[in-house]
Specification:
The chain is mainly beta. The protein is built from no helices and 28 strands. Strands 3-4-5-6 form a 4-stranded antiparallel sheet, with no helix packed on it. A 4-stranded antiparallel sheet has the order 7-8-9-10, with no helix packed on it.
Length: 333
């Protein structure tokens, strides 16, 4: 199988031969990556030029239908099938970058999508083989315990994705659901009859959402694009004023620590996170209620796990109930 890769943001592309059909591909940094084939996991340490097979196979844990990655070590995998039977799904987790896996639930409903807001809070979605219900799984402890909720939808839930700790989306066969309170409640945002939704993807850095779907028979596909920079909470008569007035940091680039300055116009809960270029949360610096005023916080180049990150480009992301903004920073060791 041939895989294309680029080293200049897509201007030109090179090809390399890979040993399997990759269903999911993720890079932890510019060199280290993992790929999932039908039977095995593969690893690269040279930016994807070459791949080596891992030691595990589906004899122990099958490959999944979807994956969620947090940091450089934690990966969750869900599937609608398992080695136990075709009507039973599973949730599995790796804490060493995909080299070893353990079941968190080896006999779940059939699960198709998973996403984690941070290393503790996550959601998985799916359906039941013998009924027409959708099911929402949620956890607040990294998957040690999962709460199962019967979702008010007709048919399976296909995928789930979050922009931040507040705003998230679920898709079923032809319906888009939205939460604006971290998954506590969900509402129908749109329904498009005759379309089969297949995947929802949220770009956390530029705040755009994408939904891929197809018409019956998969002879024609559709791509929905949403600009999530538009405030999500609107009143009939007016749109709330932006909460954030200033967001900057100094120095930039930096090699030890950088100070983030921000000022808030309106009281409310504030979240400031460091994310990778892929939108993964590296560190949460602020997650608390703030009064109007000017503030500072410092990032020292460490992840939430206390480990120094590699040199590269990262983003400082500010989010509140109606404001989301990011700035690009560069860390030099």
């Amino acid at each position: 199988t041939t895989m294309m890769y680029t080293t200049n943001t897509g201007i030109t592309w090179n090809s390399t031969t890979i040993p399997d059909r990759f269903g999911f591909l993720h890079f932890f940094d510019s060199s280290q990556g993992i790929a999932f084939g039908p039977l095995r996991r593969y690893f690269t340490s040279d930016g994807g030029v070459s791949w080596n097979v891992g030691g595990d196979t589906t004899d122990r844990i099958a490959s999944g239908s979807d994956y969620a990655v947090q940091g450089n070590q934690n990966i969750w995998m869900v599937s609608p099938v398992s080695i136990i039977g075709t009507d039973i799904g599973f949730i599995a987790k790796s804490t060493d970058g995909g080299k070893n896996w353990v079941y968190q639930d080896s006999m779940s409903y059939m699960l198709f999508g998973v996403d984690f807001i941070d290393s503790l809070t996550g959601f998985a979605v799916g359906g039941g083989h013998f009924n027409n219900n959708g099911y929402l799984y949620s956890t607040i402890d990294g998957g040690l315990h999962w709460k199962i909720t019967t979702f008010n939808a007709t048919g399976d839930l296909i995928d789930v994705a979050f922009l931040d700790s507040i705003h998230g989306w679920i898709i079923s066969e032809n319906t888009i659901y939205r939460t604006t309170n971290g998954g506590i409640s969900w509402e129908v945002q749109n329904t498009i009859p005759g379309i089969n939704f297949e995947k929802v993807f949220i770009s956390k850095n530029d705040h755009f959402g994408y939904i891929i779907g197809s018409y019956p028979g998969r002879k024609k596909h559709i791509l929905l694009v949403a600009d999530l920079n538009i405030p999500l909470h609107r009143d009939i008569d007016h749109v709330k004023e932006p909460v954030l007035d200033v967001l900057n940091n100094y120095p930039n680039p930096f090699n030890s620590s950088t100070t983030i300055n921000y000022s808030i116009k309106t009281a409310g809960r504030v979240q400031i996170q460091v994310t990778s270029i892929l939108g993964e949360v590296i560190a949460t610096l602020i997650n608390e209620s703030k009064s109007p005023g000017e503030y500072q916080t410092v990032w020292n180049g460490k992840s939430d796990q206390g480990q120094y990150v590699g040199s590269g480009v990262y983003f400082i992301k500010f989010s509140n109930f109606n404001t989301i903004r990011s700035i690009k920073i560069q860390y030099l060791k």
